[in-house]
């Protein structure tokens, strides 16, 4: 093993250890007492991982001996597996890294619009992932219920317009629908087997021309459900075209929403308070005055709390 020591006087030490097989470790000692040990090793079997764990156990024991047990805390993080055949890591909306228990790639295709993956999780079932973002899992009934009003609405005989929602509604991307009707049947059932049924029709179109067409025709809906995109993380609306897109969708949706109708949409992670506040400010910029309420729901496969909005036209005094 080759050892290299770097000394920065008042900035601590860095020691690297490299083995002939390519494995290496970094030992970083900070002046204020923090000691970091990083070990990287190529092991593609369980035996190799067990050897690494045994080595780290010995490192911890030796450190306690050297410091005469004067250690406040030792924290060992799970190994991150890089370059695997199956990617298991995605960040949450607020930037925390989460490792999923993915054990199978069910579907992986590139459409003209995005990369579409459906991966199997031991906990959550099949998960739809669009361009790297976790979209919906078979476990996520809570999401579907929340974006439909959490069971408080009676949809009997009502006109409903759903924007997006390729796992069970309408979508611009035919390949999302093709993947979901085969591999996400626990969420969409047999609805996507035929794009037109007795009481529904799925349109493979950009929703903006559809909304403009309905507005021109004077067609009105009792409910509009927007499942297109989450509230953007950016807090600079004038510099982010996504905010303009959201405002356009909101304005067009209000034009086709009945006076006593309701508009349902997802927000984002409850921790993104600045972005959510900015979204709520956008509601005051629409062509007509609106009011809103919101609720927070735990979506299993997101591994975080998610905010959902209900928006309706403000009733004016006659």
UniProtKB/TrEMBL annotation:
GO terms for molecular function: spermine synthase activity. Keywords: Polyamine biosynthesis, Transferase. The gene is SMS. GO terms for biological process: spermine biosynthetic process. It holds the Pfam family Spermine_synt_N. It comes from Cyanistes caeruleus. Residues 88-313 form the PABS domain. Belongs to the spermidine/spermine synthase family. This is Spermine synthase. The active site is at residue 227. InterPro entries: PABS, SAM-dependent_MTases_sf, Spermidine_synt_N, Spermidine_synt_N_sf, Spermine_synthase_animal, SpmSyn_N.
